[in-house]
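Hello again,

I reread your note about wanting to compare the complex against the isolated chains. To keep things tidy I'm splitting this into two emails, and this first one only covers the full assembly. Below are the input lines as submitted, including protein chains and any nucleic acid or small-molecule components. They are followed by the predicted structure of everything together. The single-chain runs will come separately.
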Amino acid sequence: MADDAKKKEVLEQLRNGVIQYDEDACKEGATEAIEAGLDANEAIFDGLVSGMEEVGRLFEAQEYFVPEILMCADALYAGLDILKPHCKQMDLGVKGSVVIGTVEGDVHDIGKNLVKMMFDVAGFNVYDLGRDVPLDRFVDEQLKTDSELVCLSAMMTTSMVGMPKVIEKIKEKNPNCMVMIGGAPTSRDLADKWGADGYAEDASNALKEAIKMVAFLKKLRDEKAEKK
Amino acid sequence: MNAEPLKQYLTREGATLVGIGDVTEALSGEILHLNRGIAIAVNRSLNRETVKILSRLQELADEWLRLKGYRSLIIPPDSDRRKDRLITRLYKLFCHKTAATCSGLGWVGKNGLVINRLYGSKLSWATVLTNAPFEPDEPVRESECGDCDLCVTHCPSGAIRGEHWSVTEPKKKIVAYEKCSALKEERQGLKDKPNCGFCVTVCPYSRKSNGQGKMEY
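Full-complex prediction:
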């Protein structure tokens, strides 16, 4: 096991690598974490995700804008790619797979990608259908993969109108599946009206929601660890 | 804010041309705060070296701006974009031709490429967007191709339509790119670069440039 000083240093490097969108620093930090025998999950959550939390804060404070967020996300992935193979399966009692995509006619997918990233971080199996996805594919993919979560994103009102249909079809076939919707034209009211379980307005909110979700998972993990 | 120090710095480091454009009108919401485009051009011979030089110049500009406390976003040359990165998605929101024309370094020719009065279409371009409040250069707003139709008549695929570019008609289709790439695929089995390049070599502005500077082939 790595000593505390070394651990702190590596976590700090991962965190700062994300904040300063320095891919090389993240890669280096991740490699060092593995070499020093750090727990990969810990390196991800207390290093990379901790950095992304700060990025979310900087975005809200308008210190960072969309370009910075994307570069931070790229830096996070650079570290995550190295750490992921060393992760132990998180035992959280949830199976964790998610279908995600931007609905038909929509090619804006920044928010979707940020949410996807946080699912990747949390160790979900992510089935990313990409952009401009025909509505039926969400339903098919959910059935095929038996995912417990489906995330739909849209940036334009015209593409959003297809959402309630998808939600209805999914719930009809699989009432336990949760559906999250996101994108500028969506709202809490619409989410409620259409029977969606979650909602995020834009990229920053999606990021915030996803961070909250991951923070929640982390809490579960910590509580579990304490009990042991 | 005077852009001369940055321009001189980049020129010393190997840039053929550097211009500052007010690109406000061409920006989408995500990058609206970065309303100055620094157009950097390097006299090229479509080889790796050119791209390397451009990338280095962009990094130097980026660093220069950051040290002064400004934001910047590097838009890399078209041939140097990593598809696996999220930031790459943003690059499509901005086109090097916009920075080039807004900074007065050229117009979009009938061949669909930026034409500079001295170097024709023999330049490779890269852009750095920034929020530094530089005094912008005078933009080029209309095509200066005039009656010349050499690229139109020499294009082996018939892709060049002979249209004049104007800043007031950004959506006008000047080149039928699908014809260009279809011929390329048919003749060389290639989907990507290199293109045949007749429209570059035949252009009088490009030919005039042959004696100038150092051309590497």
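For quick reference: Chain A has a mean pLDDT of 83.

B.
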